Amino acid sequence: MITGFLLNGFDTRARIVVAILIAIALLVPAANLMLPPDHPLHVPTYLVTLMGKYFAYALLALAVDLVWGYCGILSLGHSAFFALGGYAMGMYLMRQIGTRGVYADPILPDFMVFLNWKELPWFWYGFDMFWFAALMVVLVPGAIAFVFGWFAFRSRVTGVYLSIITQALTYALLLAFFRNDMGFGGNNGLTDFKDILGYNVQADTTRATLFALTVLFLALFFFIASAITRSKLGKVLVGVRDAESRTRFLGYRVENYKLFVWTLSAMMAGVAGALYVPQVGIINPSEFAPANSIEAVIWVAVGGRGTLVGPIVGAITVNFGKTWFTGVLPEFWLFALGALFIVVTLFLPKGIVGTVQAFWANRRRPAAPASLAPEPAE
Amino acid sequence: MTTERSTAGQTRATRSLMGALAFSLLSATGLSGAAAQEDTIKVGVLHSLSGTMAISETTLKDTVLYLIDEQNKKGGVLGKKLEAVVVDPASDWPLFAEKARELIEKEKVSVVFGCWTSVSRKSVLPVFKELNSILFYPVQYEGEESERNVFYTGAAPNQQAIPAVDYLAAEEGVERWVLAGTDYVYPRTTNKILEAYLLAKGVAPEDIMINYTPFGHSDWQTIVADIKKFGSAGKKTAVVSTINGDANVPFYKELGNQGIKAEDIPVVAFSVGEEELAGLDTAPLVGHLAAWNYFQSVDAEVNATFIEGWQAYTKNDKRVTNDPMEAHYIGFNMWVKAVEAAGSVEPDMVIDSLIGVSVPNLSGGYSAMMPNHHITKPVLIGEIQADGQFEIVSQTAGLVVGDEWSDYLEGSKDLIADWRKPLSCGNFNVVTGKCGG
Amino acid sequence: MRALTVLVTALWLMLSAALAPTAAAATAIADPDLSRLVNQLAEGGFDEVEAAIGALVATGDDRVSSILDKLGSGDLFVRKADRVVVLTEAAGRELKLTDPVTGADLGMVPKAAVEKIRVNNRLRRTVAAAIGTLTLRSDDPAVRRSAAEAVMKSKDASAIPALDAAIAAEPDEGVKGVMIAARATAVMASDLPEADKLAAVETIGDLGTRDALAMLTSYTGLEGPVGEAARKAATSIESGLLLWDAAQNISYGISLGSVLLLAAIGLAITFGVMGVINMAHGEMVMIGAYTTFVVQEIIRTSAPGLFDYSLLIALPLAFLVSGGIGVLIERSVIRWLYGRPLETLLATWGVSLILQQAVRTIFGAQNREVGNPSWMSGSFMVGELSITWSRLWIIVFSLVVFAGLMLVLKRTTFGLQTRAVTQNRSMASAMGIRTPWVDAFTFGLGSGIAGIAGVALSQIGNVSPNLGQGYIIDSFMVVVFGGVGNLWGTLVGAMTLGIANKLMEPYAGAVLGKILLLVFIILFIQKRPRGLFALKGRAIEA
Amino acid sequence: MTDKAEGTLLYLDGVNKAFDGFKAINNLSLVLAPGEMRAIIGPNGAGKTTMMDIITGKTKPDTGDVLFEGSTDLTRLDEAKIANLGIGRKFQKPTVFESHTVEDNIVLALKAKRGAFATLFHQTTRAEAARVDELLATTRLTDKRKMLAARLSHGQKQWLEIGMLLAQEPRLLLVDEPAAGMTDAETAETAILLREIAKTQSVVVVEHDMTFVRDLGVKVTVLHEGTVLAEGSLDAVSSNPKVVEVYLGR
Description:
The complex is a heterotetramer. Chain A is mainly α.
């Protein structure tokens, strides 16, 4: 039956997207490593890392879309799960520095040494082993999401109330991680990473590999998400989004469905964070900032919520715009970005992808409406 | 110039994003290719123009542009004009790293002036190391670092904190200390150093109160009241403030409102300069102190000319100057001098020739680049005046050398940095005799 | 310290002279001698200056106190050419000099010709103390009181005779009390016999104030009966202060609550009543603050006399500016998004980015100075409860705003229409209410109120482009905690959170306190999924 | 008390429910025998919908017993559990999954395991497919099966919802104003359909439309101010003076 479930996910659109992603995952690193720098198709390393970052964001956006676009849970706290995953990876990378830190302490990371800490806090144990860190990357965000969701959905916190307490969650974590006493490096966070699984994080090959991995993970999760949304469970989720009480009266335990997709999404966000950190080379509490969560939501909206391709397109477009504007019109880029959000909400309420789909749908058979659902009840 | 090129490239890229990404790579390479052959020397400016740090950093961006402007009037460097490449890392630390990479790898800048917070510096550090470029960092910071590619023109703790404490103890007979700071690395380290220093001077532990607050802390009622209480124990009390820029305004307003006068409990700050005071009604604050290596009120010819030029450049005769600006002034002139000495902008050559370079600072003396990539500075202590300026009440006799590895910290007391050959090491351990801790 | 002994002997000489019944008036000495002493003020470092002050005081000349006063306020200059100390007065590009002693006109000089005599905190204290001893016999009771207080701070044994004399002559009971307290502190510092000191401890102990406690604690370390007495007195005062401390924390809480209320109340309309997830709310507050800044700038340059009224002038303007921008936003963006609250979140987020950058471009990224008018600066004591004026006014102001808003919504036709539209848009329009008009003005009202909140908040915090960001999250917390769509909820919510925060802070510290509060909110919402003042019944179930 | 409930399908006794002081249900008692079909009428605010809410677990009563099949206490269970017991509900305002096709709406309603993982790996069986076709036929929606529910007419939505109800194979159907907003023809059709259903399942119909109730020709309960005013055949109750007063306000 698992296979059946998987086959569900493998419809034409999914095939195309996954194919494109895999192609990118292979071609870009190739173009970066094999072609000589002066070759017209050579991809400079900074662009590889940059795109790696975009794709990590895309994965985060996909996670947000899964809960918001398909289950109507507007999370303003997904950056929390993203950051937690990032910290788990960051802690592994910290432990890998070993004696190469400025104080050459074999165990303690630099920031602990100069805060005069004598031994490693318990929650840092095990992070010297990759498998453990990798496990934590999904378990920590997953666990927190599960507990949070278990309470919230059981007591039927919905709509904006849920959004705001998710924001409270990430804000609380933000403040907590800023405290140096927490033992996560305070404001400076974790940085100056040396190598991952023995490979130098600075090396072009490592960067290329990380990029490829990011894109492949995106492909994998895209595939899973597509399978889920096409399964009966996916249909129930949409049902919850559009008519929660009707779903209940059909005998579905709505809270369990929400909890399932919520936890899964948090884990995806965690993985995104873990892939993000080694590429940007730093993780610090500001990743928890509620503003980041809102931005993630905006990527989804721009790309088109309720479609799986939308968030990917949105995340990449917005961040590419950000990179571009901050370089080209540093003084005025916020105007451009702000305007983009307004324009999209006013003129492309279904987001880029949603609009395109609607357009095609109407082209093919005028009878059929846009694939995108009406606004979920708040 | 920059704008044109990138726009052309990027529009292609944007289109490509809709379809396959390949195009954007094309365009990007187009950019980096074009960037190479230019008859100007490019100078990167990496300061936040938006977000929380814009408050402090925009001024530094303007400063660098002003310095470049002046230099070009003098005919540039090595006969080439300088071209500023300004980007906005938007107070977003990963973005700092990304932008640094863009400046060096894509824009091919020869040197970068930038960063304010330690975390932004930490974030760009690996990039500068990997791509072997030069960063001038103009802000007072916690020390505990010396990198080959970074030149620290701001104060190390020993160039600010300790002289200030000495002044208060000697001149105002302070016996009881409140170390109040924002909870991040700079205050933590500075306070650690000060605590060790004070204890060494025989101050009783119960006469030291340490307090940390979050960034942008806005409600100071409780803490100011606590300080008042702590200060009313009979002994003369002073506050040593490492509170970060944004939280200072409400802090000082609360001080003023709760009627804590400088005569009763003086506050000496390390992060409050003319720029911050410009946002404050300073009348109630007269007599509170700050320790810097430069004040706008410094009575020196060179300073007068600088202020004049600066205000003319910004077309604003009220525009103040401050210590980090002087740091950039010094750093920029050092870089120019080093480049001319090396006869090239080749990073390795410039890095080597920078050590030992000595240029005028704005307080009438000279500052020299030491082998540890920190510079020599005078330490000034000023009292806030009603007009938002500082009146200098004390100045160290000679210059103080920036001490990168503090002797008051467990981990770093055995470390030294010396980037001259043959040692060329940023963290040489004199005990083990090994480079690298 | 050498300086201090000079001061002491000097004082003694002078007082012995002063107390002689024949010379009730202070002695006047020849101008040249005085001038010579005055000129000493410009010589040497801070130590020398302190000595010079002592010498001046020793003369007991009437003119000394005013000269020292000038010194303390930094208005005393020295003519570089001949090191003569002078008073200056700006006259065009030049300075008009006068002799501080004789008041004779010394002609005009360019600004560069003189330099200021530098004083630091220590000198200011010495000056204050000296003036204190000198003015203990002033005719103005207020002056005498402050003089006595100055002496109390200086803890200067040598002042005892002067105090005795002053106490003997003092008609005003209040002032006399202060003098007696001052004397007690002086006695503690002196080497008088134990008996006197015990008496002194008692006098101080009876004050029961925190200052009294401060004085005592410096002697609690002593051996023998004095230390014993001091300890006893100190502990009794402390126990008396405990209650006050609790009250103090609550007062802080209320004040924080009022700030939260101000920040949130506008949102309670745009978000609570209209259901717009208004991310640009913080920027409305910011715009109000900047309006205040502009008003003050104009006043500073054109009509400095009006400065104390600047806030009153700013209030309506801020309301109009923010409100106007609010209406603009509603008409141009939000009106297309009713019934799609999440879209409003995105759009208003965009708006907030634009507004921030706009302000940054116009006013620069730096903080802007917004001054406190005199009636908003300083603090006063209620028992041992110190209350700062600005905070008090903000509490009052927030409550007034709240009441006013309630009135508008409950008593006016506009309010009626607003509620009608927000409850049932189609029905309302069917009944001939011009819903677009109502929408625009309701949003304008919310924004306008955010604007006047900005005026108040500019008094206690930064005025920078980031101002709004600092308040937005808290505002949402308050509104949601209180219950969306219920203004009373917002009031109670704000106060609860404010007080809870301030009661926790002393124990948990600022950061942990805030974290605990957030956790509390999360858990609370589990219990009451629709906030404190939830609308009950079938209406909301659908 | 349970002995009184013996052999009944639905048993309400002394149920009270107040919203902010307003008594929506006032000491309501109602008994429904297995296989029975009951029409409930009453003016607006009589508490009809609240009663439905209480039976389906959406609202908890302040006091009183609500028993299903004489033994199960419904006040202790939530909507999902009650639905799975075999109580289906149709809302006053038709609520279907607008962004799903008609077919999917039925599929979601089909009696099957309701667990998250069960649905995650669920594959439509041949039996289910057959059942779907059958239901689409009964509700006259076969030709619209691929259409999005959002695009159905009001009447069609009503029918789709009834179809979903049947798909649950409940033992008791609660139908709230099925004829609302229907053409006379549709109304008549609906009545026939309901009588059809009533052969196999128990049905409670809440309705305003007297002609429709007459078409059903079943026992009628009149609710007023949250309590039972009269019970009996339509003719009997409509000649009841109290009922007349309530309706004509005399």
